[in-house]
Design goal:
Elements (H helix, E strand, L loop, with lengths): L4 E4 L4 H12 L4 E5 L15 E4 L5 H11 L3 E4 L6 H6 L1 H22 L3 E7 L22 H20 L2 E7 L1 E3 L17 H10 L5 E4 L11 E6 H16 L5 E5 L4 E3 H12 L5 E4 L14 H7 L8 H12 L2 H7 L1
Parallel strand pairs: 1-2, 1-4, 2-3, 4-5, 5-6, 6-10, 7-9, 8-12
Antiparallel strand pairs: 9-11
């Protein structure tokens, strides 16, 4: 075992924040990213090696494992647009489920038995109870969620077969950016609520759409659990420590346990930016549950992890620093 860590998809949103944290902890980090959605300038640490390539490229992986003797893999590489997964399911099953099998084969070949997996609360589908604990049945309602759940099943089978230990981290709504605003959320297209509301403030989009005002929630709009990306990064580091010290495989929800409505997000953006948000209200979208809220107690119990950013204004503030700063400069170019 060494401190060398392979991070797949490490040039993406959550991956790049995690890479930055791991590098700051003195770990040797190698990033493998196909750069379909990743950004080279999201890798801001000089000591981090960035390799462009596919998770399913066995020869490339074998060369990397032979060179670096990885003690663990943190796997972010995935496609994550729910709507696209419905219209093009094979793209998602190939990329999110099939290609990682090659990565696992190479890990087995080189005796690397620690795997931290970027999973999702979408594996639960429409929850039977709120807040959602890990005991909630996993019944995903779209190919994206199914592709992630299938890989969770594969990891469990590999644990039984050859001792692979995994931490499946089921995110709720990732949000925010680094405290210094140097890296942040940069999707194309951008589908997440907080950056879209901020983009409406800057005029990059004409308005933000709010789908549904008649939900059984305090203000009628949908409620979600927003988790700061820096807290997500910390959870991955703690998962590495858990597995690296002989911990068993674990599945953990990552959230705050605090629900925030769409209207509350808009109000927070107006407070942070001092600007009005152009809003267009419409009917509910099919498949959107009224509320999704995490029970993050297992992550606290097993990993010693608790979200430090619990005020959504912190998430908005850091996202605004990114969107009005480095991202704005890139957009203007």
């Amino acid at each position: 075992m060494t401190d060398s860590v392979l991070v797949t998809g490490g040039a993406g949103y959550i991956g790049s924040h995690t890479v930055r944290l791991l590098a700051s902890q003195g770990r040797k980090v190698v990033v493998l990213d196909n750069m379909v959605y990743g950004h080279r300038d999201a890798i801001v640490d000089d000591g981090v090696e960035l390799v462009e390539g596919e998770v399913g490229d066995k020869a490339l992986l074998q060369g990397l494992f032979k060179k670096h003797h990885f003690g663990a893999v943190v796997h972010f590489a995935a496609y994550a647009f729910v709507g696209e997964s419905v219209t093009d399911p094979l793209k998602y099953y190939r990329n999110n489920t099939a290609e990682p099998l090659t990565l696992l084969e190479v890990m087995q070949e080189f005796g690397c038995k620690n795997f931290v997996f970027s999973s999702t609360c979408a594996t639960y589908g429409v929850p039977e109870s709120i807040p959602i604990s890990e005991k909630n049945p996993q019944n995903p309602i779209n190919p994206y969620g199914r592709s992630k759940l299938m890989l969770e099943w594969v990891l469990a089978d590999c644990d039984r077969a050859w001792g692979l230990k995994s931490a499946c981290l089921r995110y709720f709504n990732a949000s925010g950016s680094s405290e210094d605003g140097l890296i942040g959320e940069d999707h194309e297209p951008e589908t997440h609520l907080i950056p879209r509301v901020l983009m409406a403030v800057t005029g990059e989009i004409s308005h933000v759409d709010v789908f549904g005002t008649d939900y059984p929630t305090p203000d009628g709009t949908g409620v979600r659990d927003y988790i700061h990306v820096v807290d997500l990064a910390t959870a991955h580091a703690k998962a590495l420590d858990h597995l690296g010290t002989g911990g068993d495989s674990v599945q953990c929800n990552l959230g705050t346990g605090v629900g925030v409505s769409v209207k509350e997000i808009i109000a927070a953006v107006e407070e942070v930016t001092g600007k009005g948000v152009p809003v267009q209200y419409g009917p509910r979208r099919a498949g959107d549950p009224p509320q999704l809220l995490a029970d993050p107690s297992r992550a606290k119990e097993v990993l010693g992890w608790v979200a430090e950013h619990r005020d959504v204004r912190d998430m908005v503030r850091t996202a605004w620093a990114w969107i009005s700063g480095p991202r704005a400069g890139r957009f203007e170019q």
